[in-house]
Amino acid sequence: MQEEFLHYVWKHKALKTTQLKAVNGEAILIKNFGQHNLNSGPDFFNALIQIDNQLWAGNVEIHIKSSDWYAHNHEKDRAYDSVILHVVWEHDIEIFRRDNSTLPTLELSNYVDVKLYGNYKKLIRSKLWINCQNDFSSIDDFTVMNWLERLYIERLESKLKDINNLLKDSKNNWEAVLFKLLFKNFGLKTNGESFLSIANSIDYSVFQKSRNDVFQMEAILFGLSGLLENDGQEPYMINLKNQYLFLQRKFNLSDSGVLKPKFFRLRPHNFPTIRISQFANLYALQTNLFSRIIEVQAKKEFYELFRIGVTDFWKSHYTFSKVSKISQKPLTKSFIDLLIINTIIPIKFSYARFIGKKADDEILDLLKELKFEKNAITQKFLDLKSLETHALTSQALLELKQNYCDKNQCLRCAIGNGLIVKN
């Protein structure tokens, strides 16, 4: 038995609520089960329970055995003085209040359907890829898709803290937050943290003063990245170095704490040199980028917004030293999709929360326009059950696997719940 299961039973009222009796025979009538407390203190706050014709308002504490009260030292903690009912699976000892009266105790094992507990044990003890692997396909499509939508919003909510920290650091400047988050995601997984360290080393007002001159923006980003430290003799690189040294003195720029970007195992189009040039070009071509991103809603409009390539030098180079075949090197649709998923949608979601607007439906509709991400995890789910194949599904499936399946959180999962209460 796990205490989490008992919390589930109480929270979802999955017990026979008629003719309840405390272990001492007193009648119990639950008028309000209370609110689940996920922090320290009693497990459920503000319950309303009638015990032997006396109405009590207070908290509920849940344990596997009554003796766990003492094992957890609750008798020494005044936070538990407000407990009005002790809910246990097995009653093995009396619990006394400070005034020496007996704390009323409800033994749940007498009121929970044996099938419910059997389904729970079967699910939680599974050793498969996911606990519900053999039964995943039996859950109806409506339940699955509703849960996946909720999971994706949950995934976005988990990113709010990071964005709020960026917002605090930038003194509520949303353009600065976009600049940092967007530049980070131009670096993808390999150089994301490096690019973010570069963005964090620049006061956004400095970058703003240079945004009408793409060469200045490239000089700042390449200079801070450390990519100008080589002894290249290309006139373009020499000019970048001179420009950076001038701007470094003018704006007191420092590369302290900057992580140098990597080239190893990257395809040429993802080289940090190319991504930096594309990023500088984007900011040179687009004014009021944050406002445009908040206004735009459809995928095709974002493709138009991000229809940019590199500056002239990089059309014939991937590195400073070697000439290559001339190419415009535009942002691909697949790369823009990643920017929408990892930057645009989190920014739109966070800004909507910031101004008190609900934009969930708009965000979910945009995500449904994007392609399903195929990887080992998402494909495994598709092998178990036919699902809608768009980015909302793939993003939510990753959230499901990482934060529910892998952590054995079946009781918090709508799919797990559906299987537990089945039959």
TrEMBL record:
InterPro entries: DUF2851. It holds the Pfam family DUF2851. It comes from the Bacteria. This is DUF2851 family protein. The lineage of its organism: Bacteria, Pseudomonadati, Bacteroidota, Flavobacteriia, Flavobacteriales.
